[in-house]
Amino acid sequence: MDYKPILPERNSNISHNHPVKEFIILASGVVGFILVCFWVLGFFVDIAVNNLSPEKEGLLFSKVNINMGVKADDEPEKREAVQAVVDSLRTCIDVDYPVQVTIIESEKLNAFAFPGGHIVVFTAILDKMESENGLAFILAHELAHFKNRDHLRSLGRGIVLAALSSMLTGADSSISRLLAPTGYLGQAQFSQSRETKADISALEALNCRYGHVGGATEFFEIIQKNGQDVKEGALHYFASHPELRYRIQALRKTAKEKGFHFEEVKELFL
Amino acid sequence: MIDLKILGILIALGYFFGKWAERSHYKSIIKREKEFAKLPTTSTKKPLGNPMVAKAELVCGSVVVSVDYFKRILAALRNIFGGAVQSYETLVDRARREAILRMKESCNNADQIINLRIETSSISKGGKNKIGSVEVLAYGTAIYCMKHNGL
After folding, report:
1. Residue A86 neighbours by CB under 8 Å, 6+ apart
2. Which residue of A has its CA nearest to B93?
3. Residue A104 binned pLDDT confidence (cut-offs 50, 70, 90)
4. CB contact under 8 A, B89 and A15
5. Which residue from B7, B34, B90 is facing A14, i.e. has the nearest CB?
6. Is B89–A26 a contact, with Cβ atoms under 8 angstroms apart?
7. CB–CB of A26 and B7 under 8 A?
8. Strand A118-122 relative to strand A111-114: parallel, antiparallel, unpaired?
9. Does A182 contact chain B (CB < 8 Å)?
10. Looking at the complex, does the CB of residue A31 fall below 8 Å from at least one CB of chain B?
11. Contact present, B97 and B37 (Cβ < 8 Å)
12. Is A239 at the interface with chain B, CB within 8 A?
C-alpha cells in the first residue's frame, strides 16, 4: 500500500450555514417566545389585578417603605400642601384607600404611583411648576393610575418579564439585570394607551375640581423646555410614555371635544 | 438602553474581527497542510510499510484558540434550543488542525508520525460554564528511517 498525500476537498467537520442567518433565526425565536409569554401572562396579570380589591391591596402594601432617595423632610409644610391638593382632588377621582404623598429630593422631573396608595413627588417638580393647577394635573394623573389599577399591572408585568429572563438567560446574566423589576416597580408606564387614558381622566378631574383645565399641559411644556424628553425619534415606539408633543396635542383635542376651557391658573406658593 | 447598545457593538466587533481572524487562520492552515502532506501521520501502532527504524521520538504540538463575543452569544442561543453548535465547530476544527501542524513542524525531517493522539481541554475564565478558550494537544511518535547509502 502506497502513501498518497491528498487533502480533502471539502471540510466536513463544520456546518456551512451562514452564522448571521443562524443568529437572526435563533434570536428572533427567543424574542418571539418572550413576547408571546409576556402577552399571555399579561392577560393573567390583568385577571389577577381585577380580582384584587383595593382593601386587600392596601393591606398587602401598607407596610412597604418607599426607598427611592432622600426624603425632603426639612419642610413638612410642603408635603402637607401637596397632600392637601391630592385630598381635594379625591372629591373628583375617588380612590378607595388613603393616599399618602412623599416628597423625595431629586433633580428629575417625575412623580410615581406605588401600590398601597403612595404617591412620590420629586422636589424638582415643586421647584419648576408655577401653578397649582399644573401640579394638580400631575397628581390627578397618578390618582387615575390608582383608579385603573395600572400600577399593579405594571408591577405584575415587570415580575413576569424578570422571571422569563431569569429562566432563559440565568438570574445574574447581564440581560436579567437589565430587566430587573427595580425599574418597573410602581411605574405604571408599560402601555401608551393606559398613559393616554390616565391623561384624559386627569383632565376630567381638573375640570371637575377647578371648573376649567388651565395648567393641564404645563408639566409637559416644562419638560420640553428642559430637554428631558430623550425618547423622541426612533426610540419613541419602544418608550411606553407617549411622545410629549403628541400628549400635549391629545390633551388640547380632548379638552376641545369635551368643552373644557383653559382659564387663569392659581399660582403655586411652594 | 445603553447596555443593549454596548452589547450590539461588542457583537458586531466580535463578528467582523472573528470572521477576519478565522479566515486568515484557515488560509494559513491550508497552506501549511499542503506543505506537510508529504509527512504521513497515522494513528496506527506500527509504521507504514514496515521500514527499518533508526530513531523514534515523542513529538507534540499544542495550541489555544479562543472564541469571539459573537460566537459566544450564538452558542448561548443555541443552548436554549439545542442542536449543533455551529459557532464552536470551526473553533475546534481549526484548533485540531493547527495542533497537528505544529506537531509536524517540530519534526520536519521525520519520515512518518505514528500513534497520533489528540486531547482537547477547555480553559474557562472562571465564569460559570463559559468555555472561552480551547486547548488542543496533538502528540505522536516521529519515526526516522534508516537512510540507505546511494538513495
Report:
1. A99, A101, A119, A139, A143
2. A13
3. confident
4. yes
5. B90
6. no
7. no
8. antiparallel
9. no
10. no
11. no
12. no
Q: Which of A15, A166, A169, A175 should we substitute to test contact with B (largest number of B Cβ atoms within 10 Å)?
A: A15
What DSSP line would sit under B71-118, residue for residue?
HHHHHHHHHHH-S--HHHHHHHHHHHHHHHHHHHHHTTT-SEEEEEEE
Q: Is the confidence at residue B26, as pLDDT, over 70?
A: yes
- Cell digits of residue A224: 420640553
At A142, the amino acid letter reads: E
**Pair A80, A115: CB distance under 8 Å:** no
| Cα–Cα distance, B143 to B38 (Å, whole number) | 14
Flag whether residue A15 sits within 8 Å of chain B, measured between CB atoms. yes
pTM of the model: 0.60
Query: Using one digit for the tens of pLDDT, what is the confidence trace for A8-42?
Result: 888 888 888 888 898 899 889 888 887 888 788 88
Residue type at position A97 = Y
Give contacts of A179 with chain B, Cβ < 8 Å.
none
Residue in B1, B4, B86 closest to A17 by CB:
B86
Residue A230 per-residue DSSP state? T
Predicted-complex ipTM score = 0.73
Report pLDDT digits (tens) over A215-242.
888 888 877 776 654 444 334 333 445 5
Task: Cell numbers for A177, please give them.
Answer: 439585570
- Contact between A26 and B81 using a beta-carbon 8 Å cutoff: yes
Count CA within 13 A, CB hemisphere, residue B28.
Answer: 13
**Cα angle vertex A49, ends A45, A55, to 5°?**
155
Between strands A100-104 and B133-145, the pairing is unpaired
CB contact under 8 A, B86 and A19: yes
Whether A142 and A122 have beta carbons less than 8 Å apart is answered as: no
Sign of CA dihedral A9, A11, A12, A16: negative
- CA B15 to chain A, closest CA, distance in angstroms equals 9
